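Same chain as my last thread, 182 residues:
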Amino acid sequence: MELTAAQQKYFAYWLTRSLPSNSLGKLTASLQDAQVNLPSHQIDAALFAFKSSLSKGAIFADEVELGKTILAQRAEITVASAERNNNFFEEEMEKLENRSEDVKAGLEKEQCDLDAEIKLRKNESKKTSRLDEKVRLQRLIKDLEKRRSEKRLNLYQAQDDVVEKNEPLLAKVEAMLAQKIE
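reply #2:
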């Protein structure tokens, strides 16, 4: 009886779903349907694998160089995964750096605006002849200088926040690097 490709896939699926991978019944069923005769050493190796408590089954390869093909595919997957992870890391670091630059630029602009206003108020204070107006302007200048100092502190705090946000990302990458591929 000749099976179509779809039927072969169905029976292969049925065998994998109906019997556990370390079942001798699965090995027997697979050998009955095999279109090649396995050498005795391969059958002995499969029986040994099925008897092992650590076994999750066995794979029979009927093509020459299949092991090398699998290793090559594994290497390709590893390289692709490393590239994807590297791109993700670079993108996330760039986002954090851009955010840091945006926050820094905004705070520096506010500081420049305060510097300009302080300079303007100092010039007004020099030009006025009324003492009460000079005192009022000096109070205003002191308030503006205090706000400028707060902006500087905010700038440093924002930079520290970016550094703190980098840490979880770096820890995540380190954890990903520690993973083993199976």
